[in-house]
Amino acid sequence: MENKFIYRAGIKRVTNCMRNHGIKANIRKKKHNRIKRHKEYINDNLLNGQFDRQNKNEVWVTDTTEVLYGSEQVRKVRVHVVMDLYGRYILSHNISATETATAAIEAFKRAFKVEPGAQPMIHTDRGAAYCSKVFNDYLAEQNCIHSMSHPGHPWENSPIERWWNDFKLVWLAKRARSKSLSELEQSVQQAIKYFNTERAYASKNGLTAEKFRAQAA
Fold first, then answer.
1. Beta-strand relationship, 207-208 and 200-201
2. 128: closest CA among 35, 208, 38, 30?
3. Measured between alpha carbons, how far is residue 213 from residues 11, 72, 110, 130, 203 in Å?
4. Where would I find the Integrase catalytic domain in this sequence (predicted)?
């Protein structure tokens, strides 16, 4: 018969013995995901590169970019714009400290004030603000379908990318940096007015974005 030696010891005694003899337990620690999980709304690229539209308010595209202002202390903000693909006309903009769903929604609220009752397809990238539940719930309330570019495919929203390029190279680069947020706001407003109503485009038969868009029914 096998002899068994049973010795009972409390956890404190075991801990002291392990510490005195340099013994460590090989226990796999549970990994904690520190990333806050949230429900994302991911949609297909329904626009599929069909940027040339026949009428206004068929498709609106949107995006945001970082802009600097200030002289002694440089600050960063995000500028949001909403563009109607017909005529590449900027309907609205919004400036916010960071890129949030609230800031994106505000840009669209201003766009719908310009075109009340419109129900366009909305095309965005897959930024966190555009994937959020609150943003997608807002679009659903406006009866708008949401189309999204694939990750790392900026050309799938190329009209707005080209507008940002013009905004930075044709407008901002030729002017002194705005000293205050109010100056930046004024500069953005002037830029939108210039690209909408003053600059003529060969692709629009020599018309401005505003005059080209006015041809729509």
1. antiparallel
2. 38
3. 79, 41, 18, 26, 13
4. 52-217
Classified as helix, coil or strand, 148 is strand
Q: What is the pTM for the complete model shown?
A: 0.79
Contacts with 211 (C-beta within 8 Å, 6 or more apart), sequence order: 204
Structure tokens of 81? Answer: 């714009």
Average pLDDT, the chain: 86
What the block records as the tokens of 14 is: 């075991």
- Assess contact for 166 and 174: CB atoms under 8 A: no
CATH 1.20.1530.20 assigned to domain 59-214? The reply is no
pLDDT in tens, 4-38: 545 565 555 655 666 666 665 544 444 444 344 44
